[in-house]
Amino acid sequence: MPYCIKPQKRKNHSPAFYNLTLPLQKILNSIKPLVAKGNKRLKMSFQDQLNALIFFHLEEHHSGRHLLQSLKEDNFARNHIAPEEGIEKSSFFEAINNRGLEQIMEVFHALYKEAVNVLPQEYIDLGDLIAIDGSLIDATLSMNWADYRDGAKKAKAHLGFDINYGIPSKIFLTDGKEDERPFVSKILSQGQTGVLDRYYQCHANFDQWQEDGIHFVCRIKSKTTRTLITSYAVKPESIVFYDALVLLGTPGVNQTEKPVRLVGYKVDNVNYWVATDRFDLSAEQVASAYKLRWAIESFFAWWKRHLKVYHLIARSRYGLMVQILSGLITYILLAIYCHNNYKEKVSIRRVRQLRIQIQNEAGMLESIEQNQMNRLHFLSNAKT
Description:
- There is one protein chain.
- This protein has helices spanning about 15-30, 45-60, 65-75, 75-80, 90-100, 100-115, 185, 205-210, 285-290, 295-305, 315-340, 350-384, and strands at about 130-140, 145-150, 150-160, 165-175, 195, 215-220, 225-230, 240-250, 260-265, 270-275.
- The protein is α+β, with helices and mostly antiparallel strands.
- It has a domain at about 15-110 and about 315-370.
- β2 and β3 form a beta hairpin.
- The model is unreliable at about 1-10 (pLDDT under 50).
């Protein structure tokens, strides 16, 4: 019979770390249990694994070895993050690269649903906006699955970012050469609007997305051939200088079968051309929706810089997905934490404040435990 791993209980907790991970408690009780494949007890429960990965990102560790050293030598990590019996290098990397992906994916999706019930919604008038982009991850030459080009290995994360709530919504991981455009239909659900850069321009996809009931606001190349069907009036003094119903592409070659709305606007002397199927928005709102695409760029930059998500602790495709998902989970937990405690969005100031608070509380807990041990020792000596 496989052995079912149950979360271990600790005597004391850091209130700050507990509050950060509190949204996970109900989720962890409802997900599919992690089981060992034999009769041997696993040395690292799923909750231990998830806590270690959250701690890895939260404290800006630079490698798996760095994290393992903390789990052994840092008082807080050893007492409240690591398994009670400790964890060795081989057991840790075996766990990261071979188990827990199904559970961590389930946690990510459940936590996203929890977050949208907690976080305030912005840009309601623009609808359900999901920015989509790909991000390359430097890989080692030993990662044979991460094809990119001769002499270089890279993986690629294909991410959906919920602009209204400011959190990641979906993730796919491939080798670095994988085309990003097919993932739009995998990331978006019916009724959602994908906010996309010029790379995603594909006239056949514009037709298919309209057929599938998913919307798009996609920047296109300025030299794209267009056939005018109907022109719409533009407001004087608006940044918008063009608004029309058109067919995109060359007739008989790559022209769209379904007409799209094309909006042209200018910012800082740069002309932007945006194709969309959103006729319920004003031209200015279409421009605003596309400008919000920058949110995913800002997320990637912040996420990589401050949570060190691309510092590899896994080499397999399986393990890297576990690592990336745990980084997304950490960010969503921070978004909920910052909102609940400060009514603010995630910022490095609040993250640093949280780190300091955890370390201060760890010192207090250690002092309390030492005083308890001294008291027991004194009582024991008094009896004798």
